[in-house]
Specification:
The chain starts with a helix and ends with a helix. It is elongated. The chain is about 60% helix and about 5% strand. Helix 4 packs parallel to helix 6. The chain folds into two domains: about 40 residues, no CATH class; about 70 residues. With about 120 residues, the protein is mostly helical.
Amino acid sequence: IARVVDAVAIPAVGNGGVRCRADAAAMIAATGCAAVMIGRGALGAPWIFAAGETSRDERARIIRRHCELIEAHLPAATALIQLKRHLAWYARGFPGAAALRESLFALPTPAAVQNTFWESW
């Protein structure tokens, strides 16, 4: 990225491996890029963009709202798939996360998926 920054006359955007604000700051400092683009680092952690720490209660509120929006705006079959996918991302770092992800993907209804997730929360 630093070579690109040095080689072009336009602002360059860094990308890759950014999972928190500190990672973004480190990339800017190390490469001189004008900005950082975050992709997978935000999956399961949309609070990455918050200025400070996000409390467990606030994270739960965000996850619940995300689930509500998925169910409100997607057809039922698509919503089920998306709930499983996103709750699996949110489970990253939980004790027993691998087993939780496996069980989430085996469940037949959005309610069962969410209940199982929150039992582990």
